[in-house]
User: What shape does this take?
Amino acid sequence: MIEKRLTTRERLRIHRHAMPERDPIERRSNFEEVNLGYTPELAIAEAHRCLQCPKPTCEDGCPVNIHIKEFIGRIAEGDFLGAVRKIKEDNILPAVCGRVCPQEIQCEAACVLSKRGEPVAIGHLERFVADYERETGQIEVPAIQPSTGKRIAIVGSGPAGLSCANDLRRWGHEVTVFEALHDLGGVLAYGIPEFRLPKEIVHKELDCLRHMGVKFETDVVIGQTFTVDELLQEEGYDAVFLGVGAGLPWFMGIPGEDLVGVYSANEFLIRVNLMRAYRFPDYDTPMIDLRGKNVAVVGAGNTAMDAARTALRLQAKNTCIIYRRSEEEMPARAEEIKHAKDEGVKFVLLVNPVEFTGDEEGRLKAVKLIRMRLGEPDASGRRRPIPIEGSEFVMELDVAIIAIGSSPNPLIAKTTPDIEVSRKGTIVVDEATMKTSKQGVFAGGDVVSGGATVIRAMGAGRKAARAIHEYVMTDVW
Amino acid sequence: MFRIVEAEFTAPEIKRFVIEAPRIARKRRAGQFVIVRLDDKGERIPLTIAGSDPESGTITLIVQGIGKTTKAMNMKEAGDALQDIVGPLGRPSDIKHYGVTVSIGGGVGTAIAYPTAAALKEAGNYVITINGARSREFVILEEEMAAVSDEAYITTDDGSYGFHGLVTDKLQELLDQGRRIDFVLAVGPVPMMKAVADITRPYGIKTMVSLNPIMIDGTGMCGACRVIVGGQVKFACVDGPEFDAHEVDFENLMCRNKAYADEEREALARFLKERRPQPHDSALVVK
Ligand SMILES: Cc1cc2nc3c(=O)[nH]c(=O)nc-3n(C[C@H](O)[C@H](O)[C@H](O)COP(=O)(O)OP(=O)(O)OC[C@H]3O[C@@H](n4cnc5c(N)ncnc54)[C@H](O)[C@@H]3O)c2cc1C
Ligand SMILES: Cc1cc2nc3c(=O)[nH]c(=O)nc-3n(C[C@H](O)[C@H](O)[C@H](O)COP(=O)(O)OP(=O)(O)OC[C@H]3O[C@@H](n4cnc5c(N)ncnc54)[C@H](O)[C@@H]3O)c2cc1C
Ligand code: SF4
Ligand code: SF4
Ligand code: FES
Assistant: This one.
């Protein structure tokens, strides 16, 4: 195309192309997407940085082993649709993963160029071709094999459920996805905010699945509306996949957590993303007006960054992250931390809340914090935070958002006692097939792993799909 | 979409709906609720399933118009449809043979107490019901309650009908008469439930209340509905809605339920300004 074949030396000379993004001051007043995406020229230029390694180590870094080298090669040749087709062999949601994968610890960390500090921008490229396909209206609906007459129930419409549904439908099974909420997409819909993942993208992907003939039923809570046993017996499904995520929010168990103004991150994000509370009273669901308020988010994962950046956009006066370890241990994606800082989120590190206090009406007024220092590494390999006695101090606060993690909802386990569950509440599966202890029932995604990533959930959904296919076609458990 | 088959006002601002929801009708048990969303911009509100008919695939909801969403719902008529209904949610009431049971409903709480009273009757209990309202015209489910009761009392705050006084006065009277009571279920405004708990506590009577915290998803994923029971945090939508009255922190519930009072008032005022006049406007319940 525009460039002749480059030598390795020439490729090494090109610097990584930064993702164009909107100005931090401008963007923090609205919910529009922060990253603007590569232009075709930028994408091709970035693709030329790839050395097309004989042994592409990058692919080992991707949990679903996308053929990264090949798709980037196609971008370099200007074959964007060919590139996206290549990606979709392994990942049905490239527009999502390109945006939200923690590339810096996955594919990009494993790229040979990362040793030199500037890995190929694999995520940006993945996003670019997926957007290109969608924006030019060229999304391909995959071919569907002849009907097998088998019926499969997918529980949960998050990335695990959607990827499982996609494969099973392509292989000719009749697939119904049951979702407890009124909207589809799991965390992609209710958790990750618009400015990071426009809902339009999720809707387009869902449309594609609908075109393929996947059925969606919202407002059905498995464990309540139907039990898993009822799905298998009365409702006549041949197999069930549980992709119900890890949606039960943790609290800290400290005094004052029940004051008005203390939200779980889930509640806060559900109010904003799913219920559009920031458009009250046009939308009916209210939320505490954050304008001019002091907001603190406890925790430093992606959920915490999303909550903090959302609070900024709702015009909070001060928004800070409260984290008991140091910056190095923060689990959020590097890009989210950077964006949060650029936008003005403050980081109060090595402190932990010990108590929330309120006024006589039960509204949050302040938080008492204690300073921490880091000790020896704990089971997670991160240095354990230890409280420093006598170091307590008080911070005035109107709204606190607790984002310290979540675990699977016990609803299904409680109503299906023959599904084995770990002490942590996750469903126990055979790692190779995602089979649970109950015949005909498979599980994958956050409900098995605990809170993880979109791409891992999708990988698990696909692994389960292969085993489900084999099970329903052979009847051998 | 869920089609409304019947809709009629049974008291000022209180409307009874029969709605097609076959899966929920088949599954639900006394004490459970649904979450309803009227339309795309609507909030999700919890409503107890007052009855169901698995044959015709319908459920009955009884709604008191107190704010924007419930008033908007009460403008719906037979033939209209609701965008979303999810359920049945929550744990069913613990129905067994207690002996003598008292089911107390205050206001629209009667709609919530009624299905459990019926189930208690079915389980062979001696069922006393105390059905309280502000005045005669606000009494709901009188016949239905009577039909499942061995003794049915109506109380009105103003004495315009039945016993003159509060439901708690009637309960106290029964206790003062030395009546044996083995189990009490009370549903109504939080102060009423708290008062019932205070009355039965010294007698050691097992007392349950159905709590009404603010909810969103109703499946245990947001924690909006958290209540303190026995010093522990519970999610009312999955651990309840019924809890041991003697363990509930009612003060906390009252505070939490007021979280959006300003926004609710604003939404209601806007709504009332924009909508057409309704038959029961004169009896607006202003809290
Ligand atoms: C705020 C936030 C930000 C995140 N950011 C990132 C990120 O940047 N990058 C990244 O890779 N990962 C991120 N994650 C993690 C990622 O979203 C999850 O790992 C992933 O969504 C898990 O997918 P899943 O399909 O297992 O479950 P989920 O996405 O949780 O979907 C589960 C679905 O099942 C439904 N469900 C639950 N119980 C039932 C039931 N009983 N019956 C019917 N339906 C039910 C739920 O309503 C939900 O829709 C983030 C998570 C959050 C919360
Ligand atoms: C388990 C349960 C069962 C219920 N059953 C019934 C019933 O059978 N019939 C009936 O009339 N009412 C019932 N309610 C109460 C009903 O949900 C509220 O009246 C309704 O949500 C008020 O909405 P609104 O917009 O009309 O009023 P608003 O003006 O929004 O609020 C008025 C009052 O309702 C409470 N409320 C507001 N939003 C919610 C919400 N999302 N969830 C719960 N409470 C809220 C507030 O604390 C406030 O005091 C029940 C509540 C619960 C929790
Ligand atoms: S799916 Fe995620 S980890 Fe895999 S190549 Fe794409 S961005 Fe990298
Ligand atoms: S490791 Fe890096 S340079 Fe090599 S093929 Fe993969 S992306 Fe290209
Ligand atoms: S309503 Fe969300 S957890 Fe109960």
